[in-house]
Amino acid sequence: MNRMSPVKKVAAIHDLSGVGRASLTAIIPILSSMGVQVCPIPTAILSSHTGGYENFTYVDLTDTMEAYIDQWKELDMQFDCIYSGFLGSVRQIEIVSKAFRLFSTPDNFVVVDPVMGDDGALYATMNLDMVEAMRHLVQQADIITPNFTEAALLLGREYRLDIEEDTIKDWLKDLSDLGPRIVILTSVPHEEFSKRTSVIAYNRDTEAYWKVSCDYIPASYPGTGDAYTSVLIGSLLQGDSLPMAMERGVQFITTGIKASYGFDYPKREGVLLERVLNTLGLPVMANSYELLK
User: For the chain, does the N or the C end have fewer beta carbons within 10 angstroms?
Assistant: First the structure.
C-alpha cells in the first residue's frame, strides 16, 4: 500500500542546463506551480542546452545514475509518476528502464517523452541504436508523447507532411501496440497551407481518439516539448481527463509563445515561462478538443 502524501510526487529523469529554459529548468517550475513535487534524476549537467549555443560544458552523469536510483529504492521512495525525457546513450536508456521496474506500481504511471529528432531528422546526438533502444523503453510506458518525427522513427515509417488523419490514427494505434496505453502525438501537421498544427491522442482503454488544434506561430523555442508534457502530467495528477490535460498543455504553450514572441531577445533562451507560470492556476475556459470518429 502506498503511503499517503500531502502532494503528488514525480520522479523526473532529465538533463539540467544552466542557460535555456528546457528539461529540468522548465519541468521543475511548471510542476511545482501545479502543486506537484519534482524529484529530479539528472542525466547530465550542461552550462547551456545544445540548441543554438556553442562551447557549452557537459558533465555526463551516467555513472552515478544507477547508484542514485538504488539509494532511492533503499529509502522506499514512492512516486505518482515517473517521467523520462532526453537520454544521451543506450546505457542511460537501460538505467531508466531499471528505474521504471523499481518504481512503477499499479497506482502510478510512467511517461516517456522519446526525444530523438524533429523536422524529419534525428538529432545530431542520436543514431539508429538509440532508436531501437527507445522502442524497447516505450514498451514499459503507460503514456508516450512523441512528436511527429519521433513517431515515424519509432514505427520505421516515412516522414511526410501530407498525411491523412486516418493514417495518423493508424500510427497511434500501432504505437500503442508497442506497449503504452496512451499515445499523445504532438506537432501533427494539418493539410498544406493550413497554418495549423494539432496534438492527437489515442487511449487504448477506451479506444478513443482525441484532437486539440492550435494556430501555428512562426517561431521556434527550445524546451516547449518538455513544458507541454509537464503540464500534461500535472493536469492528469490533478484529476483532469485526458482531453482536458491535452488542452491545458496546448493552451499553456500557446500562451507562452505569444507572451514571448513580441520581445526582442534570443529565442534560444526558450519561452518566457516566468511571465506565464501563474496561468497554470487558472481554469481552462475554452474546450476546443474533439473526439475523432
Answer: N
